[in-house]
Amino acid sequence: MESEGLCTLEKRGNIFLLTLTGTGDHRLHPNLIDSISAALRRVRSESTSSSSALITTAQGKYFSNGYDLKWALVDNARQKLMSRKLRCLVSDLITLPMPTIAAVTGHASAAGFVFALCHDYILMRKDRGFLYMSELDIGFPIPIWFSALVKCRMGSPAVRREVVMKAAKVTAEMGVEMGFVDSAHSGAEETVEASIKLGEELVSRNWDGKTYAGCRKTLFVELLNSLGSDETVGDYGDEDANKTLAKL
């Protein structure tokens, strides 16, 4: 097992296990995003000769509690930096030449929810944790690329309305019923074990990684086309920032 700063990357045969470490809420500060991106570069470089799969999980109560807004809303430059880094990370995941699985063992909110949705499969513990698009509740506008990802992952307009326009706190069993969570498990360990089993099943298909990534890029073309800009960053002024910070 090797450390990438705020996360670790372990290789088990042809399975890469990326773990966000520590007991914090794993907010997507540029430092954490950089650590994840560095791990993905290693995954990409070490998976060229055989079929592989990536599992992403996290220690503690949270999978990821979203953007580090208290850091970002200090000024517009920070907002732009964080947005750019997250969009690059999303692109890295969508173009990764292997199946990807999010083992969601705790809460995943806002951009943390988006991070989970960028994986091909979501497995989730059912005894604790929820998926939550919190932007409506905290008064933070959703970028077009968030919307494009939601459309790619959630085929039903009714589900999209529940998740985005009602800010539902989606449990594992609700997510399975809605169709974007693949399975629900009794605890964190069971969720990771099920993810490893799924990863091994996918690896056994021995798919060509380049072809796999190409198929995914076709399915997510609307998302990829929207990653070049973030129209809500730059329009979010001091007054709006203060209102959002007051709700955190």
CATH topology annotation = 2-enoyl-CoA Hydratase, Chain A, domain 1
Helix content: 40-55%
Percent of residues in beta strands?
15-25%
Q: How do the strands line up in the largest sheet?
A: 1-2-3-4-6-8-11
- Outline the low-pLDDT stretches: none
Number of domains: 1
* The top level CATH class name: Alpha Beta
Using the CA coordinates, give the radius of gyration. 17 Å
Order of helices and strands: EEEHEEHHEEHEEHHHEHEHHHH
Protein name: Enoyl-CoA delta isomerase 1, peroxisomal-like
Pfam family, one: ECH_1
InterPro entries: ClpP/crotonase-like_dom_sf, Enoyl-CoA_hydra/iso
Organism: Solanum pennellii
Give structural attributes.
248 residues; alpha/beta; globular; ClpP/crotonase-like_dom_sf; Enoyl-CoA_hydra/iso
Describe the 3D structure:
The chain has 248 residues and is an alpha/beta fold. The chain has one domain (2-247): Alpha-Beta Complex (2-enoyl-CoA Hydratase, Chain A, domain 1). The protein has 12 helices and 11 strands. The strands form 2 sheets. A 7-stranded mixed β-sheet has the order 1-2-3-4-6-8-11, sandwiched between helices. A 4-stranded mixed β-sheet has the order 5-7-9-10. Strand 3 (15-20), helix 1 and strand 4 (53-58) form a beta-alpha-beta unit. The longest helix is centred in the middle third of the chain and has 19 residues, at 76-94. The mean pLDDT is 91.
Give a short overview:
This is Enoyl-CoA delta isomerase 1, peroxisomal-like. Helices cover 48% and strands 17% of the residues.
